[in-house]
Each structure stands twice: as C-alpha cells, then as structure tokens.
Design goal:
about 220 residues, alpha/beta, Spore Coat Polysaccharide Biosynthesis Protein SpsA, Chain A, 7-stranded mixed β-sheet, 9 helices, about 40% helix, globular
C-alpha cells in the first residue's frame, strides 16, 4: 500500500523544511498544503522539497486536508502538523495497524505518549480540559475508551476519509473525522505519540475564537 503524507502549513518557514525532510523518510509521497494567508517563504521552501506543494482555498485547516487528499495518490494518508510538534519517527506506528491489521483510522494519542503543549498556561489548560470533556462525551456515546480524538497526527485509509464526507473546514476536522469513523463502524485505534512544544511562535488554534466549533461538532454524535 502506498502512503502519502499531507502537511498543512500556515506561515511555518522556520520549521517546514525539517518537517518535510524527516517525514519523507517514512512515506512514498509528500504533499504540503500552504495556507493562502501565509505571507512568508513557506511555499517557496516547501515547493523545492515536497512532491506536491499547493495553496489552499483560505477556508482553514480542514479544507486544506481535504484538498491534500484529493491530490494524494496513496492508499494510506498520514496527517502531520508543520510546526515541529510531532515526531516523524512515529509515522510507522500510525501506518502499521492499517497495513497489518486492517484498521481504518489510527490516531496518535498525546494522553498516552505525553504532550508539552497542553500544560503551563491558561489557554493550554482550557484546551486540555475542553478536549477531555469532548473525549468523555464521545466515549460515553459509543461505549469506548479512547483518550485523544483531537490530535492532528494520524493515519487513515484514503477511501475511508473520502467516505466520511467531512464538513469541517477548520481545526475541528479531526474531531469530526473521529466521530464519523466510529459512527460508520470503522476500525479505530490509537497509539502513543509524543507532542513537543512548537519550536517557534504560538499555536494557530485560538480557543477564544474557535472553541465553540468543537462543542458544536458534538452534533455529529446525533446526526
């Protein structure tokens, strides 16, 4: 099975090169989707290193992932952030259950592998607490015991991704993907992956502006 990795990037000129170089050791195809709002050299750098580098439509991370999947030729799609917070060495841990055991979606768990992003500040505390409540709701609804449905570091079969018909165009796309996969009876697994502090700058996810989308996203439990 061929594996494609999709790297959404918004103004990440300082980390995009390392992300591509380390990730492509573990996949067959690298695709970088650069945010239309980026004003730095992210696209220039990525276009020299990635197999495919395109500009998104400006609607957000979720839209970028969907654009990337349409361009991908792989049977398995891996998603990884471009800020250096994920360890590319964990990619085989995400892909192996799909290839070997026929899982449909495998998510990296920060709860199991540890995270340097979810502790220390008020914003990080709110993100951590909110994510825990959402995960509790999902676990209760489906009678499962998962720990992290929000992490962007994950792998999924391409045909499964497309069958989910995702609506989210922002950071809530991962949550919708997780919920819809469970609703469709797909085989879902999580593996421990460690999340590092982003090397430069601050997280693009602003709880004060987008937090409501995650709460609203719980509607997919009942639709």
């Amino acid at each position: 099975m061929k594996t494609s990795i999709i790297i959404p990037a918004y103004a990440e000129e300082n980390t995009i090169e390392e992300t591509i170089r380390t990730a492509r050791e573990y996949v067959d195809e690298t695709i970088v989707v650069v945010a239309k709002k980026s004003k730095d050299n992210t696209f220039k750098i990525a276009s020299k290193l990635a197999d495919i580098c395109i500009i998104d439509d400006g609607r957000g991370k979720g839209a970028a992932l969907k654009i990337g999947v349409e361009m991908a030729s792989g049977d398995v799609i891996v998603f990884i952030d471009s800020d250096g917070s994920h360890d590319a060495k964990d990619i085989p841990k995400l892909v192996k259950p799909i290839i070997k055991d026929n899982y449909d979606l495998v998510v990296g768990s920060r709860a199991l592998g540890g995270s340097e992003e979810l502790h220390g500040t008020l914003s990080e505390f709110i993100r951590n607490s909110g994510g825990a409540v959402i995960m509790l709701c999902v676990n209760y609804f489906f009678n499962v015991q998962f720990t992290d449905c929000e992490n962007g570091f994950r792998a999924i079969k391409k045909d499964v991704f497309k069958s989910l018909r995702l609506n989210a165009n922002d950071f809530d796309v991962e949550q919708e993907m997780f919920i819809k996969a469970l609703k469709d009876g797909r085989k879902v697994k999580e593996v421990p992956t460690h999340e590092y502090k982003r090397k430069i700058g601050n997280s693009r996810l602003k709880v004060s502006k987008t937090g409501w989308k995650f709460v609203w996203g719980l509607r997919h439990l009942f639709l």
